[in-house]
Amino acid sequence: MEYLFNGTDINKKGLQLNLNGFEYRVFISIEELYDTTGKLYKFYKENFGIGIWDIKDKLNDIDLQPIQHEFKKIFADENIPHLLDLTFARTFKKCENQKLYFKRLKINSLISLKGC
């Protein structure tokens, strides 16, 4: 588990932990992260004291949330019929264009076009 602590708080107050009887914590691989955007501090405030398996991975997930939200809107149930219409319309148009091209070449035999 990884924990996020505020360096300023540790400097002023020390590292404060609440432990129940017979509990212990060992911190290894301590890393200092710099917050230039405020994103890390916001994450710290929302998850204070909660152990997280991979903090950097969780921060990347937060960065990707706007993109994931847009994909969810695109692939929402009400949009699927429109997406299918667009997909099949393009495929049909492509097949028709290929068939017209072969007709212009005066190839009269039945031509099976892949995907058409």
Number of helices: 4
The total count of strands amounts to: 0
List low-pLDDT spans: 104-114
How confident overall, as mean pLDDT? 77
What Rg, in angstroms, do the CA atoms define? Answer: 29 Å
Q: How does this model look, in words?
A:
This protein is mostly helical. It has two domains: 1-67, no CATH class; 75-116. 52% of the residues lie in helices and 0% in strands. It has four helices and no strands. The protein has helices at 7-13, 39-46, 55-74, 80-104. The longest helix is centred in the last third of the chain and has 25 residues, at 80-104. It is elongated. The chain starts with 6 loop residues before the first helix and ends in a 12-residue tail after the last helix. The model is unreliable at 104-114 (pLDDT under 50).
Topology:
Elements: H1 7-13, H2 39-46, H3 55-74, H4 80-104
List keywords for this structure.
mainly alpha
Briefly characterize the structure:
With 116 residues, this protein is mainly α.
